[in-house]
Amino acid sequence: MGINTTTTNSKCSSNQINIGGTCTSKAEVSKQIISITQGVIQKEDAKGVLLRVDVDNGTVVKTGLGDSQEGVPATPDMKFRPGSMAIPMLTTLVLQLQEQGKLSLDDTLSKWFPQYPNADKVTLRMLSSVTSGYPDYIQENPPFQAAQLAEPFRHWTDDELLQYAFAQPIVCDPGACFHYAHSNFIILGNVVEKITGKSITELLQQKFLGPLGLTETNITKLPAIPSPALHAYTSERGVYEESTGWSPSWGLGDGLIMTSTLRDMTTLIKAVGTGKLLSKESASEQVEDLSKGLPGAPGQIGYGLGVAVGNGWVLQNPVFNGYEGIAAYLPSQQLSIVIDNTHGPNATEGTSIATDIFKALAAYLAPTLPSTVKDR
Question: Which residue from 102, 126, 140, 274 has the highest number of Cβ atoms inside 10 Å of its Cβ?
Fold first, then answer.
């Protein structure tokens, strides 16, 4: 393992969990987890919530709460869009290539794509940690947001997305600020493809889906979600409507858009959080907070190479086409929390219900290491 995974639960019996120093029965912990989650659901009007919590490699809760559609209960086997959970897969690929001597995170982009702005100063480390200063095609980009919402079924190409990004001014000099921009990951994926001669889709299947047994994960930019699907809803266009079939093609680059399940995302975040697929040195490098002290840094939560980090947690918290999620791992307690939710008609757009559920659960399950994650 690349990261310390010493558990705090060892003094409790096999049917108990250490909650703040007190050995508590798994049945009581499960009851409290569901009660806490239902409280947030009611307060913030989530329509459906998928939730899985594992402690010490044992599943404590795996459930669906609320509805996928009217009259169709949410179930824990339902598939959803995990959005940015693909990003730590990409940065893990980059770290693996560095271990093999095929690249260095300190290589500049000009080695492969000299045409991009500041390519002679932007490094692969900056792309991976979103400190390149590159603008985004989604966030803080009203022209793209208007175009995407006007045609939610439009299939976007990577070139079109990058054109929207670079129509905006550069945010800062390379390495001088933290600015979360999806354009970094499209470019980083293109670099990996150029080095390996393989598509990102092929690489993720070889390095992640196969070795980790992610048999319920499907990589595709097409809108269909395999059955059973958790249906999504949003009020982003001024009216509450279903968004399940909206095109996901704008979310990330080719090979990085997928559908998945609680089971697969739990397996993935555990692999990322423990450094299972990396050397100890690379695993430590992935979770180093590279945003610390930079203008635009997210505050109490930090950002490493494709992952958010803070108070010992390693996580991603995607928001995508009416789906909100979080996948988080706390190595010191071998604790994983994976959530995906959809909105009811009275939910507030622009905030993540999944993040609020996670923070409430983290405060209960790991009171000495509560999460400080914020909505993006």
Answer: 126
